[in-house]
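fwd from M.: "can u put these together and see what the complex looks like"

so here's what she sent:
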Amino acid sequence: MRISKFTRTAVASAICSGALLTVSMPSQANKDLDRLSKEDNNWAMQTKDYSASHFSKMTQINTHNVQHLQPVWSFSTGVLNGHEGGPLVVDGIMYVHTPYPNNIFAIDLDEPDKILWEHKPKQSPAARAVACCDVVNRGLAYAPAGEGYPATIFQNQLDGHIVALNAKTGELLWKMENSDIAMGSTLTIAPFVAKDMVIVGSSGAELGVRGYATAYNIKDGKQAWRVYATGPDADIKLAKDFNSHNPHYGQFGLGLKTWEGDAWKIGGGTNWGWYAFDPDLDMLYYGSGNPAPWNETMRPGDNKWTMTIWGRDVNTGEAKFGYQKTPHDEWDYAGVNYMGLSEQLVDGKMTKLLTHPDRNGLVYTLNRENGDLVNAFKIDDTVNWVKKVDLKTGLPIRDPEFSTHMDHEAKGICPSAMGYHNQGIESYDPDKKLFFMGTNHICMDWEPFMLPYRAGQFFVGATLNMYPGPKGTLGQVKAMNSVTGKFEWEIKEKFAVWGGTTATAGDLVFYGTLDGHIKALDSRNGKELWKFKLPSGVIGHPITFGHKGKQYVAIYYGVGGWPGVGLVFDLQDPTAGLGAVGAFKELAHYTQQGGGVMVFALGY
Amino acid sequence: MHTIKFLIKALCLGASLAATQAYAEVSKPLKVCAAENEMPYSNKAGEGFENKLAELVGSALGRKIVYVTWSDPRYYIRDSLDKGLCDLAIGVDKGDPRLLTTQAYYRSGYVFISRETDNLDLKNWDSDALRKAKRIAFVPETPAEVMLRAIGRYNDMFNYSHELVGFKSRRNEYIKYEPSKLVSEVSSGHAEVAALWGPSAARYVKASTTPLVMTVIPDDNVRADGQKVGSHYSSSMGVRKNDPTLLARLNKVIADNQSEITELLEKEGIPLVSEPDASDKS
């Protein structure tokens, strides 16, 4: 780990200039960030708040006037690859980030004509070459000033580094190497601030990178803890009472026992999605991704703890519970999607919950204090690899017709490897008790091959042919109750709704589409009330914020990511991008590359 | 009298017709299924040793060689040879069940390649150097992978084997492992050993400015379950299953020109091993 020489200088000058505003109490910054995130003028973290609610209490824009939303200003980032995540807005400053080369722009909302400061890192071009699914970045994180550090902006770079910048000036405070680009390991995940730490995940499971999550001290970038997804319990960091509430999930020694030999060393389980945090319980939630290698015959066993929903003590990283959703994965259903926290009645009792729409097409709701499985229902009734989840055992009851073994072809597996839900952050309306989720409705054929060449050499692989699911379109938006599994409404979208949703107390839910629209639906019934065609397709999420008494909506445009990989890299072979090129070949008839942020407000 | 004359005329006509037919066939170009870019075997510029062998065959048969090239080795037999777009594959395993194969025109083996100055003792897969090596360059899904698993080093080499193709996903596409690159990994010092099919590496070992050692791995390897892992293979030419005529002609070409063929292969640097006894199953 290299510690930047800027650290001491920056901290010293920050202290001298009186930039520290807080009382010296441990994790005061945590409470400040929590407070900032609940002020709806701000959008202080990618997930909006620690519950990942993506919900604003603002009602200035509502179902009666949303048709008057108009663009009021825009900013082109100068980068053309896929723009995931969203801008941050804190105390009147908007922070904009880009895909590789991972530039950052700060814009003062009082003077949106100018760039307040910018940061343009120099990275190894090797980073571009090894990224698998477009050179995306899921966003920045913000920490208000704390004990020993100024207000800080964090970013993970594609080349595996995390940087900490002074939020006022953009000056580099420190930089750490989290992932080794020489191993093909890049970073696309957004950093996540909790207490006096910033937490970073990992990428590269299919290359044999053993998944890990790391917490760094905000003030100097020193490592606070690191936890792995596979291997010895000490590496995975299991609490002494790990899964004591649900011992049937599995407890100790399984990071080794559910693998053959030392296969756990290349077992994967990276996490590049999203975190959620409960400041009362001091618990951090996230999901670990897929096991490696992709060929399931090469890794007999349940492959724990890949594909697992984690509840960890944020101070130490210790896991209180871990629930594996897809034991011995066969489909690439990487378990890294977002975690939405809510409090709802379960059997008459108000319960702290987490809800997680997995790639595998199931929406899981767990008691987030002890890991109890409350519900696991299909996000669409066409999910077929699993018949249902046995809520008593927590195990999926699989349908062998839709497994992906090397000895049989399978047609119409739903979801495809892209999942019925991917990296978008969704929204929760606490008054309606509804989650609003965009989905992918994509299924696939699986054609394994084992073809001889010469001198004992074979070519072993599988062709994935992806296409719209049985309902005919590539995407949907749905409103659902995560405890009962009941759907309130659903609408179809031509393309996968990749980027996520944001909901407001004005009875609205906003999202962007791959072909380039930002839309507002009535969150009570799914009726489309407004849309606007952006310069390029959307794979990020909208935000809403306030400035000088006016409510705004903003969104990145810039098509790309996995669904856009054919467009971005001009690929014609339908099997390229693991089949995504075939699934999304229509997209090029609707949109082209772009990159920027568009800001909307009521036009009167 | 007329009958006999007629018969003689008929016979002569018949004979000359047959001769014309035979002449027409041999004067047709010989369509060879060859790789567009699969060195050292073949490329579009004809620089591979299988290109040279094709020319030898064409010359022996008195036929012009025309290449019908493929870029994906997984499907060329199904999509080109079996469909009649081309008629001959120069280098296939003897006994490849998808084809009729000639007698073997050479036999070779997998080799260990290392730097002369390192003085590594690489007798076989049990060698200590392989247990200690930080990087062993190999091509996935070859016997070298099976043996790496057998000696418990596969997981250690997993990430490196992806590095060799720039971390590109090989799951559903043909991603080529370049023998020249794997040899250069050893000559540059990035890897201590490469375990490759000898004929694929020979010319690069020969041409390396860093002196390299290439030793044939003995053919007595077994997996953890006791099953034999063959590392010596005989190479033949292959034709469609419905083309015994061409097969017979090729067998004759090989029999008549074996020493020239062997000379070509030795010039390439290919390590040749003897055919097993007729009683051997391999």
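replying to her w this: The longest strand of chain A covers residues 442-452.
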